[in-house]
Predict the 3D structure of the following.
Amino acid sequence: MTASYMEMWRLVAPEVIVVITALCVLSVDLAWLRDAEPRLRSTVATLLSVAGCAVAIGWILRAPLTASFGDGVLVLSSVAQHVQIVLLVLTMLTVLLASGASFTRHISEYLALMLMATVGMMLLVSTQNLLLIFLSLELLSLSLYVLAAFDKRSARSAEAALKYFLFGAISAAFLLFGFSLLYGLSNSTNLSTIASTLQSAPLDPLLLVAIVMMLVGLGFKVAAAPFHFWAPDVYEGAPASSAALIASGSKVAGFFILYQVLVLGLAGAEGSSAWHGYAAGWMPVVAMVAALSMVLGNLVAITQTSVRRLLAYSAIGHAGYMLLAILAHTNQSFSALLYYAITYALTVLGAFGVVAVVEHEAGGDTLAHFAGLSRRAPLVSLCMLVFMLSLAGIPPLAGFFGKFYVFASALNADHGLLWLVVLAIAMSAVSLYYYLKVLKSIYVGEPADEALVSVPVVQQVVLGLIALGVVVLGCVPSLLLHWL
Amino acid sequence: MNLLPPISLLTVVPLVGALAVLTLGRRDSRMARTLAFAFAFLALAVVVVLWHWFNPTAGGLQFEEVHAWIPALGVEYHVGIDGLGLLMLLLSAIVVPMAMAASSRIVERVPLYFSLMLMLEAGLFGTFTALNFFHWFLFWELSLIPAFFLIRLWGGVQRAAAATQFFIYTMVGSVALLLAFLALFLCTGKFDFMDLATLAQSGQLLSSLASGFALHSLTAGKVGLLLCFGAFLGFAVKVPLIPFHTWLPNAYAEAPAGVTMLLTGTMSKMGVYGFLRILLPIFYAQLREVRTGLLWLAVATIVLSAYAALAQKDLKRIFAYSSINHLGYCMLGIFSVLKWTGDNPALGVEKAAALNGVFLQMFNHGLTAATLFWFVALLEKRSGGLRGLDDFGGLRKVAPVFCGMMGIALFSSLGLPGLNEFVGEFLIFKGTFPLASWPTSVSTLGLLLTAIFILTILQRVFSGPLNSKWAGMHDLTLSERIALAPPLVLMFVLGVYPQLVLGFTNSTVMQLVRHLRF
Amino acid sequence: MLAWTIYISFGGALLLMLLPKGSVRAPRIIALLAALAGLAIAVAEFVKRPSGELVTVVQVSWMRSLGLEYHLAADGISLTLVLLTGIVAVAGVLFSWNIERRANEFFAFYLALIGGVYGVFLSFDLLLLFVFYEIAIVPKYFLIAIWGSTRREYAAMKLALYSFVGSAMVLIGLIAAYVVAGARTMDLVQLSQFPFPVHFQMWAFPLVFVGFGILAGLWPFHTWAPTGHVAAPTAASMLLAGVVMKLGAYGCLRVAMMLFPRGLDPWGFHVLGFGSWREVFALLALIGIVYGAMVALVQKDFKFVVGYSSVSHMGFVLLGLMTLQQIGLDGAVLQMFSHGVLAGLLFAVVGRMVYDRTHTRDLAALSKMHLGKVLPFAAATFVLAGMASIGLPGFSGFVAELQVLIGTWRAFPWFVVIAGVGIVIGIAYTWRAMQMAFFGAPSNSSVGAATYPAISIPERIGAVLLLGASIAVGLYPQLLLRVIIPALHSPMFDGLWKGGVR
C-alpha cells in the first residue's frame, strides 16, 4: 500500500502543488501583509497564485504520465493532463483579470478559493470513479458558491450565490441519487466496470431513471436547459471574475465529466436520437436537452439588454452545441468537444474581462453602458469584437472552427443527427443578431463621454493575449487539436 | 494602300476628334470649333482619297477588313464598302462640315456640342461601312445617342418632349430590329450581312428558320414575315415611312439647325441604306409577298407628307414634311424593284434605273435638304429665331443674294431640270412606272403638291410687300456666301453631270439587281 | 502572386486599425495604395495567363486530420472576378476621398471586406471559401451601421442577418457534402469529381443555391439588397452591388452547381408545373428581373432606383446560370463583371457625386435643381452608365445580357419574351431617373441658383476607370471570354455538362 500511496502522490502532484499554493496565498497574507495597503496585498497574492499555477503546469509538462490508479479513482491520460493544463491556464488568466478588482479587501481569500475550485476541476478530469467525481464536483461547487457571494457589499451577489447554492444543492442530490442507482445496478463505482456490466444486460428501466437523474445533476453544472435557471442570475450578480470562472473553467470540466459518464459509463445504453430512428437510451434525452438549450438560449438572449445576462443565455445555447458533440460520441467528436469547450471558455473569459472594464468605468453592464466604447478604449473594443464574433461563429476565429468541427464530427458519426445540426446552424444564425447588438453599441453608439478610459496594463495585456489566442487558434486549430 | 486599314481609320478620325474636342475647357469655344472643323475636313479628305482609290467598275465590296472578334458569338469585325457605301460616306463627310458651319448660333457648352457632332459622324461612318450586324448595330445606336443629346440640350422650347419622342420611336425600332436579328442568329449562327444574304439567296435561310422555330408550331414563312417586319420597323421609323413618322416634324423643328441638317441629310439615309443593304438582300422573298401594301405605303408617304407640308406655317416643319416626301420616292423605287419580272431583261434595266435613281436621290436629297435647313438657320439668325411662313415678306428687296441662293436650293428641291434632284426623281419614275404603274401615277401627285408649297414659300417670304420689321435685314456676308457656294455648285454639277455618282454606283446596282433574281 | 491580393488587403486593414487617430489623409492614401497593389497584381496575373486553366497559387495542409487545406488557386472565372474586385476596390477608395469621420476605421473595414472578397474568389478549398465568405459579412455591417445614411442600423442588421442565414444554409450543405464524401477532403477539385448520390444532390443543391443566392439577390430573398445599398455609404454600396452580390453568384456557380450538378436534373414528377429545381430557380431569376425593374420604376429615392436595378440585373446572372448552356453561362459570368462595374459606377454617381453635394436623393427635389447644368460631369457619367446598364451595344452589359438571352432562348424559349419586357422596363426606369435627376424642368424659383463643389479629380479618375472597363469589355469581350470559356470547360464542370446536355 505504501508504494501505492507514493504512486498516488506522484499522480496528484499538480493538484497538491495548487493546494499548497492556495495555502501559501492565505498564510502569507495572514502572516505578513495584514496591515499592508490593499494594492500590495493584491499584487503579492496574484503573483503567488500565478506562480503556483505555472509550477503545476511545469510539473505536468515535465513528467507527462499515462497511468491508472485504484479502481478508476485516478486515470491520467495525455488528454486529461492537457485539459488540466488548460484549466490551470484559464485560472491564471482569471486571476490576472481579477487582480484589479476592488470589490473586496480580502483578495487572498478570494484567490485561494479560486485555486481550490481549480483543484476540484483538475481532479474532475482525472477520475473515472463515481465517488471521486461527486467529491470533486462538490469541491468545485462549494468554492464557486462562495466565490459568487464574495462581493459582500452587493445584495445581488448574495442573491446570486443563494440561488446558485439552492439549485446546486438540489442538483447534487439528483446526481447522487443517479449515481447510487447506477452503483446499485452495476455494483461498481468505476465507470468502465459499470459499462461492461451494463452492456451484458438488457436496458433496465431503473437505468433510465438513473440517466435522467444524472443528466439533471450534470446538466445543472453545464447550464443546459431546462436546468439553467441559476445561470442568468449568477452571471449577472456574481463578481465578474467569479462569473468568468463559472463560465469558463467549470464549463470545461463539466463537459469533460459529462462525456466521461455518458460515453464511458453508459456505453451500450446510448439508444438513438436519429430523426426517424428513435431508441431508448441516454441519446434521446441528451438530444432533447441539446435542442431545448439551443433554442431557448439563443431566442431568450435576443431580448436581453444586460450583457452579462446575454452571455448567460448565450452560454445555454453554446451548451446545446456542445451536447451535440457528446451525442456523436466518437474520438473525433470528443476532441471536437474539448476544442469547442476550451476555445469557448477562453472567449467567454475575455468577454467577462471586458465587461469588468466597462462596469468599472461606466458603472453597469447594459448595452447602453457599452455605447461608444470603441472611441474610448479602442484596444479593449477590438478584443470584444473578436470575442463576440468568435462566439457568433464567424471565421476565422476559434468559435467558427469549433462549430464546424463539432457539426462535422456529429454528422460524420451519425447521419441521423442531421436535424440537430440543422437546428444548431439555424440557431447560430440567430445568435449573430444579439452579438451584433453588443458590437453595434460599442462601435456605432455615441459615447456619453469622449475621454479615453484608462485600463490597467495587466488587464489590457491579458485581454489582448486572449484575443490573440482566439484568432490564432481559429486560424491554426491544429495547434490545440494535436494536444487533444 | 494596304499599310493602314482605310475604313477603320476613317471611323477612328472623327472619334479621336470627338475626344480631343471634349477635353477642351468650356471657355475654348473658338478652339473647339476650329478643331472640330479640322477633323471633319480630315474625314472628308480620307473619304475623297477612298473615292480616288475606289474601283468604279467592280460591283462588289472593296477595302474589306475581316478580323475575329467574339468567336463565342460568331461575331467578326467585318467592314467594306461598295458603291452604295462610298456614296453614303461622301454624303456624310460633306454634310457634317456644312452642319458645323450652320451652328454659329450655338454658344453654350460648345466643346460638348461639336464633340457630339463628331461622334455622330463616327456613328454614321461605322453604320455605312459595317457588314456584321453586331458592330453595325453598335454604330447605329452610337449615332442615335449624340443625336438625342444634341436635340435635348440645344433644342428649342419643346426640346424635352421632342427628344424623348425621337429617342423612344427610334429605340423601339432598334429593339425590334435587334430581336429580329437575334432570332436570325439563333437559327443560322450568323451575324454577317453578306453570309445572311447568301443564305437567303440559296433558300437556306427559310429552312434554318423552320428548324429553329420548330418548337413553336410556327411555319417558316410566318416566322420569316415576322422577322422581316421587325427589321422593317427599325428602318421604317428611321426613314420615316408614314405612319411611323410622327416623331420627325417635332424633332426637326426643335433641333438646332445644324442638328436638323444632320438628321435629314444623313440620319434619314441610314434608314434607306438599311433597306438597301440589309432588308432587300436578306428578306426580299418576304418583302415580295407584301409588295403591294408596301408600295401603297410609299405612295401614302409621298402624297400625305406633301399635303401636310402645305398646311404648315413653320418653315422648318415644311421642310421636315418635304423631307419625308422626298424619301418616299426612294421607298417607292425600292419597293417597286421587288416585282417578280421573270426573265424579261427590259424590266431588269428598269429596275437598275429605279435603283440608280434611289441612290442619286439619297445623295441629292441629303445635299439639298441640308442646304435648305442651313438657309433657315441663316434666316433665323437674322430674325432672332422667327421662321414662320407669314413672318416675312419681300425679303428679295433687302437680301437679294440670300433669296437668290436659297431660291436655287428651293428649285432643286422642287425638281427643276438642270438641278440635282431632277435626275434622281426622273430615274425613279422612269424605272418604277413600268414596274408599278398605278402607285407611280398616284405618287406624281406628290410632285404637284411639292411645287405648290415651294412656290408658296417663294411668294410669301421672298416676294410681296416688304414687311417693315425686316427693312434693316442684312444680306448674306461674304463668308456665308463662300461657305454656301460649294453645295450650290454641287447641285448644278450633279444636275448636269449625274455620271459623277452613277459612275461608281451603277455596278453595285447591277449586282443588287442580279441578287434579287427575277 | 495572386495570394498577395488577400494579404495586402488584410495587412492594410490591420495597419489602419493600429494607425493613431487624427490623421485624415494617411488612411485614404494607405487604402488607395493597398487597393492599387491588389489591382496591379490582378492585372499582371490576368495578362500573364494565356487561358483560363486552373493554376494553383498556394496549397499547404491546414488541418491534416480533417483533410483541410489552405488552397488558393485561380481559373478564368476567379481571375475575372478578382480583376473586377481590384477595379471596384480602387474606384471605391477614390469615391471615398471625402470620408473624414473615423477615416482609419472606415478604410480598415473597407480593406478587410476587400480581402475577404479576394479570398472567396481564390479559394479552392470549400471550407476556406466559406471562411472568407463569412469574413466579408462583418465589415459590411459596420460600414453601413457607422457611416451609412437612411435607416442605417436597420439596414445593416438586415443585411448581416440575411447574409448569415444564407451562409448558415451553405454551411449545412457544406458539412453534409464533406461528410458524405467521406470526410477526407474539402478540396473543390476533388469534391467536384466525387459522385454524390442523386437524392443527396437533390436537397443539397437547392439548399446551397438558395444560401448563396440570397447574397446574389435571388427573388424573393433580395429584400436586403435595396435597403442595404441605400443605407450604405457610397464606397460600401459600390462594393455591395459591385462585388458582394457577385460572391453569391460565384458561390451558386462554383459550389452549388459545380458540386451538385445532378440537383438540376428533372425530379421525375411535376409540382405546380415545375419539373426540376432548374425551372424553379430560372423562374425566380426571371421574376427578379421583371420585379426589380418594375419596382425601380416607381421609386422616389434616386438610390433605390439603382438598388432595385441591381436586383434586376443580378436576375440575368442567375437566369444565365440556370440555362445550362455554354453561351448562357459565359454570359452569366460576363454579366457578373459587367454589373459589378456598372452598379459601382451608378452608386458612385448617386451617392458621391449627387447626394454628398445636394444632400437629397429625392427625385422630385432633384428635378428642380437642374443638375445637368450644375454638375455636367455627373450627368454625363450617369447617362453613360445608364446606357451601359440598359444594355446598349458597345458596353459590357450588351454582350453579357445578349449571351444570357441566347442561352435562355435555347433553354426556356418563352422566358426570353418576359426577360425582354424586363429590359424594356429597364430602359424606362433608367430614362425616368435620368430625366428627373439631371434634366428636370428648371424651376423659376431661386433653388436653381445653388452651386456645388465641382466634381473632384479622384471622382473623375474613378468614373473613367469604371467606364473604361465597361467599354473595353463591351467592345472586346474576348478579353474576358478568353479566360472564362476554358474555365467553364475544365474537368471540374464535367458533371454540369454531362447532366446539362439535355
